[in-house]
Amino acid sequence: MFEMPGYRTLGVIGNSGDIKLYRLMRYEDGRMVIAKTTCEEYPGPVMVDAFRYEYDMLRKLGGRGAVEVYSLEIMADRPVLLLQDMEGSTLDRVLRSHANTLDLSARFRIAASAADCLMQLHRDNITLNELTPSQLMVNPATYEVKLIDIRMCSTDQSKSPLSLSMDRPDAVLSYISPEQTGRTGVTPDYRSDFYSFGVILYECLSGRLPFELQDVVDIVYRHLAGTPEPLHERFSSIPQPVSDIVSKCMEKMPEARYASAFGIKTDLEECVARLQASGQVESFVLASHDIPERWIVPVQFYGRQSEQRSLRKALQRASDRTVETVWVSGNGGIGKTSFIKETFRKVVPFEGFFAMGKFDPHHTARPYDIWNQVIDTLVSQLLMETKLQVEVWKLRILKALDGYGALLIELVPRLQLLIGQQPSVQPLPPLEAKERFHQIMNRFIQLFFHQDRPFVLFFDNVQWADEASLQYLSFLLEDRVTKHLLVALAYRDDREITELHPISILEKKLVERNIAINRIPLRALDLADLKQWLSDAMRYEAVNTDELAKVLFHKTDGNPFFLKQFLQDLIDDKQITFDESGRCWRWNIQLIKEMNVPDNAAAYLSDKMRLLSYQMVFVLGRAAFLGSRFQLGTLSSITDLPVEELMEVLDSAVEERLLQQVSSSDAKSYKFQHVRIHQAAYALVSEDEQPDLHLKIGLLLMDRMEISDDVTVFEVANHLNQAVQRMECFEQCQDLAKLNLQAGLKAKQSTAYETSLGYLRHATALLKEDHWDQNYELFFQIFRERAELEYLCAHFE
Description:
Strand order of the largest sheet: 1-2-3-5-4
Radius of gyration: 29 Å
Oligomer: single chain
Number of strands: 18
Number of helices: 31
């Protein structure tokens, strides 16, 4: 039994798998408190940090929606939170101990009180991210409910040290939303709490879970694809309006759920009132008071109906038998990525496989990185299957690869988790090696082709594609075995696309082979679309938003990314606010009209960033040089700022919605919210500073490359190649030439000959005629390799 000096332990009142709740009495004055601590005596630093984080959050809440906190104690490395005792117990225990005494009216009142807790936290901009019956304290005598465990919660400015991807208790899985499984492509937000709340309501009203936990894979699948039997059909005593409230909370798509906890609370209170007045709950219109209190951009599309029809038709043709390519073009920020992802996710539901990859604007990735992303995604999907299905896939893959699995494991090391270690493969001459590698890739990818269940490949930012990756795509599309495949390519249709660009070369090849090319150019929203977009977001009749829509359209030209940025800034600056008393959104149209705004998204972002503090401009500019995603430790090394100070700056950037913190098993990582933001941050560094920064990053990564597999020779070479003008002597040029040779040979080994040639050209450019005598053997190897690669790339002259 848990013991604490100065207190008498009266008993356990809650247990959620990793924490326990005890009721204590203080000897000094007989005061009753609740002690929350870990089940483990030595829980580790992450859990201790989570308790500290929760303590700070509870203090800020001051008893609103969650129990009041008195203090945080650390007893021999074990954290203990002392909390207000509101009597009662956790909801899961109350439901068990009072199963026969809680009538329907009492359960409704408890549910409405729980919704009120959720409403209060959401109004403080807190998202729970995890909600189970063991996290709710209930006093069954008064129907009072308070949250007692908010360790997983987050705000725009802060995030819990814990995450769902960590080792959370299995019981939590019964309550997670579809988007929290990580398999829907939808980013979880505060509406994920509503799904979890719906599961709790289902259990609270019926005594049973909608989906019983059998194993991890099964419960994940049920959340993604299963529909629970409606409560009123499963239990005739439950009124249909109550059943409909639960079903609305548990909708698969976040936008189909309630938009506010206030809306849920109001509907539950209406049920209580009707039950008490007449003894029954007649039907009424749900969500009539449900106005979103947080700004959420609608995910549905506006003005894209014909484009979506084209995509649907191409998918249908791919289902039947053909190979289809869809080329989606448009300006930056026009919504190409979301158009493709959302159409396949929502408008075109299908049972096939979907995999995507994104090209890197700075070409710092390893050769065939786009295919690494695709195969890694497929491997991840297969590893989530049942044990039997995983074994079936393993046998299918091993049969298809026929002893050459090591070639793909070298490209995607995670594949080894699926098929095990593979025997080494005999080397071949370059042209035969490339042909063999492409054939093995084909055999693997063709395993995912099925009639009526097409395989969709989505490549984003193709304007930055490398030639080797698109050459293999051409090889895959030209194979006669390739069927039931749809390839979607998103790219900016601007000056970056020339006749010699890899995408232009791919297009010519496909035209020659009579492979279908479907073009879908995306345009900006028109005024009517923008009006509808605003009225859906604010739950207003369109007429109420007409004037605001006209001003926004005039200032953004209907560019969706620009529009979202500008609107969010207006909300952050309180130019647009939600009025809780009036249950509506309000704005000052005159002030918005008078604002000076640049005429495009790039200039708007650039101006916005230059208004940030000097320190944030300094940090974001250097972060951008590390890539669209970067680690805190690496950024600290190139900025020479302490980690604590740097985190404050990055947290502010997260609050400004410029960065997003991403989960990482080994280090704290961030990513830029959009490629436009990344590019704007990159431009914050002056041209004079850029070579020095590339040099600093390159040397840092070179040191790390010697002790870690996380850094590739390609990253190092790409940074140092952009710092050539800072190479002051022959030795430095020679070292860089040697590094480019190393990168070239590595790329050549991967059969990415075009990529390899680029590095060898860099290497030869660094050497001068009078250097030959100083290191003949190295120079001869560099020029010989370049000569062979020029030949392999058909540059015979």
